[in-house]
Amino acid sequence: MLTVDAYAAPSATEPLVKTTIERRDVGANDVLIEIAYSGICHSDIHTVRGEWGQIAYPQVVGHEIVGTVTEVGSAVTKHKVGDRVGVGCMVNSCGECENCLAGEEQYCLAGNTGTYAAVDRDGTITQGGYSTHVVVVEDFVLKVPESIPFEKAAPLLCAGITTYSPLAHWNAGPGKRVAVVGMGGLGHMAVKIAHAMGAEVTVLSQSLSKQEDGLRLGADHYYATSDEATFSELKNHFDLIINTVSASIDINAYLSLLRLDGTLVSVGAPAEPLPVGVFTLFGNRRTFAGSSIGGIRETQEMLDFCAEHDIAPETELISADYINEAYERVLSSDVRYRFVIDAATISA
Ligand SMILES: [Zn+2]
Ligand SMILES: [Zn+2]
């Protein structure tokens, strides 16, 4: 066992505190990663506060991890000491079901093993990236291209792949009109990636407060959804809408913006079910869909795509003792656009 420094939630209601946790010994197929940076995802907050179900405490979260390989197991072939690597939302899967065999491990029929708050293969509870080191099976470790600035790369591992996967699956590209609902951690990545894929990109945000950023990051158009005229002007307009908002929205109003064979994909998860009007789907043969992160092969494809197109998340680098304040700012949408923890400050 390796004892490492970390920031953990002691309970659902207390702030995160500095502590130590145990990492398993490096097995034959494992790599040991010295974490350099760890992103803060809204899911981290939902999880530690018990809003997505009861969890065991203390719990370390964080599933946007980049770092350097410092040790490899005897059977490891994909990574070597010194490699720049990343770990995203999952650290294992069954490897045998039809979805795993198709390279879609995120949809593992036995359930993928989440990077934190999940039961690992050895029965322990997985602990996430707000820590100095992590031990991960080599198959779930990604290569982070040198050209992506390391201190910005971490959010690609969740926000990046969560938006890249549906954009790629539903063929965002030249001639396609893509709308991104919400200009937060996920939304700003969707704008950059959809733009790089060649699509015509429109941001649908509650207000115009981030309009300048949206246009700078690659959006062609920017509309406020608080303005009723937006919905009449853009009716029957989009091929693809990526909904990154986790609050409940009037889903039928957004569905009505889809043109023939258009698809609205939700990647944000509201707590309550959304009432979808089937008659709205009849019109224009519309589809309402969901998408969850991406497989390992596709995550690597996304990292390579971002390197090729010079795409990196907009980040605010913080020290570990600022995590609790950062959480409050995430909850009030006061971050442009992702907090990243400098892991060197975790042991300070
Ligand atoms: Zn996440
Ligand atoms: Zn599986």
UniProtKB/TrEMBL annotation:
<dbReference type="InterPro" id="IPR036291">
    <property type="entry name" value="NAD(P)-bd_dom_sf"/>
</dbReference>
<keyword id="KW-0479">Metal-binding</keyword>
<protein>
    <recommendedName>
        <fullName>alcohol dehydrogenase (NADP(+))</fullName>
        <ecNumber>1.1.1.2</ecNumber>
    </recommendedName>
</protein>
<comment type="similarity">
    <text>Belongs to the zinc-containing alcohol dehydrogenase family.</text>
</comment>
<dbReference type="GO" id="GO:0008106">
    <property type="term" value="F:alcohol dehydrogenase (NADP+) activity"/>
</dbReference>
<dbReference type="Pfam" id="PF00107">
    <property type="entry name" value="ADH_zinc_N"/>
</dbReference>
<feature type="domain" description="Enoyl reductase (ER)">
    <location>
        <begin position="8"/>
        <end position="341"/>
    </location>
</feature>
<keyword id="KW-0862">Zinc</keyword>
<dbReference type="GO" id="GO:0008270">
    <property type="term" value="F:zinc ion binding"/>
</dbReference>
<dbReference type="InterPro" id="IPR002328">
    <property type="entry name" value="ADH_Zn_CS"/>
</dbReference>
<dbReference type="InterPro" id="IPR020843">
    <property type="entry name" value="ER"/>
</dbReference>
<dbReference type="InterPro" id="IPR011032">
    <property type="entry name" value="GroES-like_sf"/>
</dbReference>
<dbReference type="InterPro" id="IPR047109">
    <property type="entry name" value="CAD-like"/>
</dbReference>
<dbReference type="InterPro" id="IPR013154">
    <property type="entry name" value="ADH-like_N"/>
</dbReference>
<dbReference type="Pfam" id="PF08240">
    <property type="entry name" value="ADH_N"/>
</dbReference>
<keyword id="KW-0560">Oxidoreductase</keyword>
<dbReference type="InterPro" id="IPR013149">
    <property type="entry name" value="ADH-like_C"/>
</dbReference>
